[in-house]
Amino acid sequence: METANIHFGLRIVILALAMAAWQPGVLFSAETDAAKEGTGMYFAKKAYEAKPLPKFAKLRARLPSPIYDDNPVLVRLYWKAWELAFHNFNEPAPQSGFVSQFIDAAFNQNIFLWDSCFMTMFCNYAYPLVPGISSLDNFYAKQHEDGEICREIVRKTGTDFDYWVNHEDKPLISRWGWPGYDEPVGGARNAPVVYTGRTIPSPNPKLTLDALDHPILAWAELEHYRITGDKDRLGKVWQPLVHYYAALQLYLRQGNGLYVTDWASMDNSPRNAYLKNGGTGIDISSEMVLFARQLSEIALILGKDTEAHEYSAEADQLASAINQAMWDEKRKFYFDLMLDGKRAPVMTIAAYWTLLAGVASSGQAADLVTELKNPETFGRPNLVPTLAANQAGYEPLGGYWRGSVWAPTVTMIIQGLEKYGYSDLARGIALNHLELVAHVYEETGTIWENYSPDHAQQGKPAKSDFVGWSGIGPIMYLLEYAIGLRPDAAHNRLVWRIEPGGRRGCKRFRFNGHVVSLIAGPATNGSKGEIIHVQSDSPFELQAYFQGAQRTFMIKAGKQKFDITGISK
Fold first, then answer.
1. What pLDDT, on a 0 to 100 scale, did the predictor assign at position 24?
2. Range of the domain at 528
3. 316 is a domain residue
4. Which of 15, 89, 508, 550 is most deeply buried (CB count within 10 A of its CB)?
5. What is the structure's pLDDT at 10?
6. Residue 558: inside a domain, yes or no?
7. How many domains in the chain?
8. Which one, of 141, 188, 146, lies nearest residue 35 by Cα?
9. How many CB atoms lie within 10 A of CB 297?
10. pLDDT score for 17
11. What's the first-to-final CA gap in the chain, in angstroms?
């Protein structure tokens, strides 16, 4: 029997493993057919074409190879992340109905939607050598006719994780409810969502609320496009994304126009108790703004101007509702809303989704940045904790979502900061996280699910060998923030922000179909410039920045050499 003093996060691990081992029919009449009638109808790919699974030993010599003389540990960490990632590449199981090879979340025997979205972000840099973005194909292939996509699907059978299926055919319920951080799991299971100010959605959903958190598929697809320039893929996923968005609008939108969520957004956060029975979350509401804005962006890329305008207008309308109801002018922060419309008191990292979604004004963004620098709340030694340090329940060692530092939320914050012009702060947070992961790697020999906010160690609890989304730091942050390479495939452009120091660069860097090697190092003639060596298989534009100077080079196929000198201050 569970006790209240066991970490909620650890209970989730134990219960998830137990659920994965269920026999059909124990609690519900489980679905046994891998390919359900009416699923995957919006995604064209219907079958898996067998091919060899990539192996690390064979592909290592073709992967991007970073150069970073300032800290060789980061390069060793990079290769460790890829080694772990290759252990988690999988072929579809027979009869699963999955249509593509995929990277697994390294958590249990199921695939997870938002984990997979984040894993694609570092796999993009080895595209098309490894199955990164194709991991999402299997979720589109299992999309229900009404647009719902389950956040957790059984790897062996291809069926939605049984516990998140609405077998009872009820209006929207939360299977696990909204337990507080010090409450045992299951105190309010199968609790209904109470809709206020709107009619109950019809027909009843196929899934429970637990299955419908974090709709970030469009973000993952656009990140893939930013690096690879694969416009054709955006066309293939347009219909699945549109129907997914519509399903979330139908079932998750509360009468106030904002969106409901439950424990599944942040498992054991103190916020959960305030969201009971239909409270609205600042994260899910902002994510729906983000989803609409990104559908608008994809529509423009695909030449769908009318749809682009419609989604943009919906995003602006929802953003306005968030600012009216969820921004607290006295506390200068965004908060969840309880079912009665009052603001919940808990300060969590969820508020920072407003930056990535473009919800906050410039003034509100400045206030959020102030809290990121405040050591009493989010400005802890390891950035950025998921719960403000001055909140009840904060755990200096992590405690899962009671303070732990997670790669996905750090990524959300740094990309949101960049949208508002805080690029230096974003880079500082990315490097802070990368150095933390590297230090713990040196101490333990592996990469962890999450990390302590106050101590240079893994979080408690946290899974080891977790690549998994924790590969974002060692791979993506090293390439984009430490070395400074940022692709803009749509414009056939590579932006390189070169920091002073030792040699840096990357051999076999992949973007927009190019394979290019770039190395920058201090000039040997005593000047304050950098010498850039480039070898490319095809032309592109290189925008180089160094100590206030900016130069644009038109790269041709073959070898070239350039120099750039910083501006004296």
1. 31
2. 493-565
3. no
4. 89
5. 35
6. yes
7. 1
8. 141
9. 17
10. 37
11. 66
Residue 184, pLDDT score: 64
The two tokens of residue 414 are 């740094």
Residues whose CB is less than 8 angstroms from the CB of residue 526 and which lie 6 or more positions away in sequence, other chains included: none
d(CA 360, CA 377): 19
Question: What six digits make up the tokens of 526?
Answer: 């005593």
Q: Are 451 and 457 in contact (CB under 8 A)?
A: yes
Query: Distance (Å, rounded) from C-alpha 341 to C-alpha 201?
Result: 20
Domain presence at residue 510: yes
Cβ neighbors of 327 (< 8 A, separation 6 or more) are 333, 334, 364
Q: What are phi and psi of 28, to 5 degrees?
A: -135, 165
Phi and psi based region of residue 179 (left: phi greater than 0; alpha: psi -120 to 50; beta: remaining): beta
Give me the pLDDT at residue 28, please.
32
The tokens for 416 are: 């949101």
Cα–Cα distance measured from residue 172 to residue 514, given in angstroms and rounded to the nearest whole number: 47
- Beta bridge partners, 540, equal 555
536 to each of 492, 552, 556, how far by Cα in Å?
Answer: 13, 16, 7
Question: pTM of the predicted model, to two decimals?
Answer: 0.94
CA distance 22 to 163: 10
Cα(60)–Cα(82) distance, integer angstroms: 9
Nearest-CA neighbor of 16 among 85, 105, 120?
105
Which residue bears the tokens 């337990």?
179
Sign, CA dihedral 191-248-112-353, equals negative
Phi and psi based region of residue 418 (left: phi greater than 0; alpha: psi -120 to 50; beta: remaining): alpha
* Residue that has been written with the tokens 């498992």 in this structure: 267
pLDDT at position 188: 72
- Is the backbone of residue 445 left (phi > 0), alpha (psi -120 to 50) or beta? left
Query: Dihedral sign, CA of 100, 356, 324, 179?
Result: positive
Q: Which two tokens stand for residue 320?
A: 């306005």
pLDDT of residue 180: 74
**CB burial class (10 A; 0-12, 13-18, 19+) of residue 323?**
middle
Burial 268-281 (b: 16+ CB within 10 A, else e): bbbbbbbbbbbbbb
Q: Side chain identity at 27, as an amino acid letter?
A: L
Is residue 342 included in any domain, yes or no? no
Q: What is the mean pLDDT of each run of 10 residues along the chain (569 residues)?
A: 32 38 32 57 97 97 98 98 98 97 93 97 98 98 98 97 97 92 69 97 98 97 98 98 98 98 96 96 98 98 98 98 98 98 98 99 98 98 98 97 98 98 98 98 98 98 97 98 98 97 97 98 83 98 97 98 83
